[in-house]
Write a structure and sequence with these properties.
Layout lengths: L2 E4 L31 E3 L2 E5 L2 E8 L2 E6 L3 E5 L7 E4 L7 E6 L1 H5 L3 H6 L3 H14 L1
Amino acid sequence: MMKIKCLYNTGEILMNSQRKPKYVSENTKYSQLKIGEEYLVLGILMIDGLLYYLVDDGGIISECPSLLFCIIDNKLPDDWFFSNIENEYTEIEAVWGYYELVFDPQHYSKLINMDEEAHRIYYRKKMGME
């Protein structure tokens, strides 16, 4: 299982990177993240050429820029899949993760929009990883 540790929870560190994420400023706060806390990664998204980890803390599921973390355990689960997305309606270019995240085009947006069934699937997958 892939595990990461939070090093930063503001956009300030991202402003120093070579490729700055869209919609992020040095004032952007990732308040759901706790510095020093470890998180299981349930998915990886490539958005505009940058990697984002799908994590949760306190029941809030979100994608967070990979530059906010260091990798503790880089083993990917055996049941992960990959898809290269060529769709003009999304900024997501590629996704790695559990079946529904990769193959259901609506699953990610349902997760972010707090859909109950999508959350159930996410947490069931997470429990299987712990």
